[in-house]
Amino acid sequence: MSLDAHLVVKRDGFTLDATLTAGPGEVVALLGPNGAGKSTALRALAGLIGLDDGHITLDGRRIERDAPEHRHIGVVFQDYLLFPHLSALDNVAFGPRCRGVSRTESRVRATELLTRVGLSDHVRKKPRELSGGQAQRVALARALATDPKLLLLDEPLAALDARTRLDTRAHLRGHLGTHHGPTVLVTHDPLDAMMLADRLVILEDGRVVQTGDAATITSQPRTDYVARLVGLNLYRGHATEGTVRVADDFTLTVAGAFTGDAFVAFPPSAVALYNVRPEGSPRNTWPATVTAVSRQGDALRIELTGPIQVAADITSAAAVQLGLEPGREVWASLKATEATAYPA
Amino acid sequence: MAIPAIAGLAFLVLPLAGLLIRAPWTTLPERLTEPGILAALRLSLLTATLATIVCLILGVPLAWLLARTTFPGRRFVRALVTVPLVLPPVVGGVALLLVFGRRGLVGEWLDTTFGFTLPFTTTGVVVAEAFVAMPFLVISVEGALRGADSRFEEAAATLGASRWTAFRRVTLPLIAPGVAAGAVLCWARALGEFGATITFAGNFPGRTQTMPLAVYLALEQDLDAAIVLSLVLLVVSVVILATMRDKWVGVP
Predict the structure, then answer these.
(1) Does A67 touch chain B (CB under 8 A)?
(2) What's chain A look like in SS3?
(3) Residues of A in contact with B156 (CB under 8 A)
(4) Cα distance between residue A240 and residue A235, in whole Å
(5) Are residues A72 and A149 in contact, defined by beta-carbon separation less than 8 angstroms?
(6) Is the Cβ–Cβ distance between B228 and B37 less than 8 Å?
(7) Which regions span the lipid bilayer (chain B) (predicted)?
(8) Selected residues 201-220 of chain A with any CB under 8 Å from a CB in chain B
(9) What topology is assigned to B45-208 in CATH?
(10) B158 interfaces chain A, CB cutoff of 8 Å
(11) Which residues are bridge partners to A286 per DSSP?
């Protein structure tokens, strides 16, 4: 069971054009900013909107012309869409009933599934009597009850509060592991994507801009959006044997020697700030002006302008010592070993 | 503001009060059990109920079509559906006669093919009432459908439900209050129907003479009988209103 799709959907001024593949048991996260076309892609896969071009091949069969009820795709919707007039049990039994399983058999299967997601005490409850996390589990059980060939999850954790989110994420991870078909997960939260998915597909403006596992994406972002998401400074330029020209008159000395178009990425914590030009080792030093100061976890995030725009994380103590405030002029330095260059 | 408001209230309440004051309370039990009244009441309840069932069978799918699909001329169809609402019922009756009458467009065919005529029969009463009352049901159900989240139908589809199954098992239970309210309004309208009924079905006691027709006829011969009949209709209306508010619509 695997998925191979090329989704083209045109909607007033917006075009989604994305290829998507997922192997048996693989969890692929579609990650992107709001309006990138993630939900459109999911709805197109589920058959809730039609394709303008392209194809969807699931389990070796073309399904892009099939109605949603014939696609055998399970969907967990963002706000779950549990049927409010049915109990948790009947919600889960709904799918099997529609597929011709007898009432008794459907209920047995639904009870099993609800027990599996840890809700055996809540089978008789109506959706409004369930907490957010419980509703999410019922929605998952309902989607899995039809034994779908493909499982789709739309922002599965977005509606939950922080604490429930943590529990539910771990729980969801366990259940995704037991699903034999491919899973496609839509999210705008990089943490959810990295925790739940085997592979990330980054969607921006209707197009796939980067795919890869979490380690590659977090260390080698290829767009500003991904760089912001994983908290790295990112520049594009031309590399010549250990230095990369990232602005007209500005080069960075980096780790990794090759020649050609390149990306340079480094974390804000790799940037050090000084009142006077530092003597000695770091080869990358440049004058910069503070434009903004904000709190970032334990550190302060300093936004700087100069030959390049850069974010630096420094301790509060250091910030006080340097008297950092917007407009202040400082020297920035970056160790060459902390800046990674990779081909663009 | 207070004076016209009180005047308005009085204007609505006084006629009803008049009905209660002038009612022949002492002879009420005998009058209520007169065979003529019972026959008219029975016929009224029967035809109004049948008309409501007809409206449900035809009106709910029509409302679904208007609320959930887009097709060319949908707005025009929607306007057409509401025409009986503003059309004088007598005109409706004339129109029905022209179509379903013995020499009518459809009526002639019905007569020659099945030997079946509608005008001046009990079935004709049902047709006239359904024609006039259907917009109430369609508008109410369409409103309920527009208010209901259509994504539940999408969720049902992904679980393997056909459109019909999704409608029957998900949408219909969700809009049940709207359907019930529409059915009650439709029933009440059918019960009070006069103009279209008398034009299309005539005024034959026991066959097409419903309560409103009986009231009208009695008014010319026996005022007290007319009052008694009116009282019965008033009581039925009030009971409907009370039931609808408390049970089905959930108005606080």
Answers:
(1) yes
(2) CCEEEEEEEEECCEEEEEEEEECCCCEEEEECCCCCCHHHHHHHHHCCCCCCEEEEEECCEECCCCCHHHCCEEEECCCCCCCCCCCHHHHHHHHHHHCCCCHHHHHHHHHHHHHHCCCHHHCCCCHHHCCHHHHHHHHHHHHHCCCCCEEEEECCCCCCCHHHHHHHHHHHHHHHHHCCCCEEEEECCHHHHHHHCCEEEEEECCEEEEEECHHHHHHCCCCHHHHHHHCCEEEEEEEECCEEEEECCEEEECECCCEEEEEEEECHHHEEEECCCCCCCCCEEEEEEEEEEEEECCEEEEEEECCCCEEEEECHHHHHHHCCCCCCEEEEEECHHHCEEEEC
(3) 83, 94, 98
(4) 15
(5) yes
(6) yes
(7) 46-67, 79-100, 120-141, 170-190, 225-244
(8) none
(9) MetI-like fold (1.10.3720)
(10) yes
(11) A332
Of B232, B235, B199, B205, the closest CA to residue B217 belongs to B205
pLDDT tens-digit profile, chain A (344 residues):
899 999 999 988 899 999 999 999 999 999 998 889 999 999 999 999 999 999 999 999 999 999 999 999 999 999 999 999 999 999 999 999 999 999 999 999 999 999 998 899 999 999 999 998 899 999 999 999 999 999 999 998 888 888 888 888 888 888 888 889 999 999 988 888 888 999 999 999 999 999 999 888 888 999 989 998 888 999 999 988 888 988 888 889 888 778 889 999 999 989 989 988 887 655 788 999 999 998 888 888 999 998 999 999 998 888 888 888 888 899 999 988 888 888 88
Contact state of B159 with A142 under an 8 Å Cβ cutoff? yes
Domains of chain A: 3-225 (3.40.50.300), 234-343 (2.40.50.100)
Side chain identity at residue A241, one-letter code: E
Q: What is the pLDDT of residues B78-136, one digit of tens each?
A: 999 989 888 999 999 999 999 998 888 888 888 888 888 888 899 999 999 999 999 99
Residue among A67, A74, A85 whose CB faces B173 most closely = A85
Answer yes or no: do A83 and B165 touch at CB < 8 A: no
Interface confidence, given as ipTM, is: 0.81
Which residues are within 8 A (CB) of A63 and not within 5 positions of it... i.e. 6 or more apart?
Answer: A47, A56, A57, A70, A71
How far apart are the C-alpha atoms of A182 and A246, rounded to whole Å? 40
- Number of Cβ atoms within 10 Å of the Cβ of B81: 18
A301 exposure class (CB count in 10 Å sphere: 0-12, 13-18, 19+) = middle
